[in-house]
Design brief:
Blueprint lengths: L8 H66 L5 H28 L6 H15 L2
């Protein structure tokens, strides 16, 4: 009959498996906490970006509109059609430039959850290196 007491070989293996499982759970918990932190940081960054972008858009739009009206009023008697055409071309060029800059900014952004994925890759390398 095999021994099952605290000093038996089977008890040591069982304790090692428990320790391994506890380490795995702790590792998983750490990675999930990192993931949650990254998601929260990304959410806050996006909310801040939306707030500042909306404010900038509003005030710039009002300023540009008032400036356009001012230019048209100044040239009303002599060159009103030319003033409107120049302003329309200018606004279209600026809009196209901003759209290109926004597209470039989106293309160069950091991959979502990259820190978590990097840590998981390191863990995988550590486990497969043995």
């Amino acid at each position: 009959m095999p021994e099952t007491g605290p000093g038996s070989p089977g008890a040591g293996i069982l304790q090692s498996l428990r320790n391994l499982a506890a380490t795995g759970v702790a590792l998983l918990r750490t990675r999930l906490e990192l993931l949650a932190t990254e998601i929260e940081e990304e959410r806050l960054r996006l909310l801040s970006l939306l707030f500042w972008a909306a404010g900038a858009f509003y005030f710039l739009a009002v300023g540009v509109l008032l400036l356009a009206v001012l230019v048209i009023v100044v040239f009303w008697e002599s060159h009103r059609v030319a003033a409107v055409a120049v302003l329309a071309g200018l606004f279209l060029a600026i809009g196209a430039g901003m759209a290109a800059a926004a597209r470039k900014s989106l293309a160069g952004r950091r991959k979502l959850l990259s820190a978590s994925l990097d840590e998981l890759e390191k863990d995988n390398e550590q486990l497969t290196r043995r």
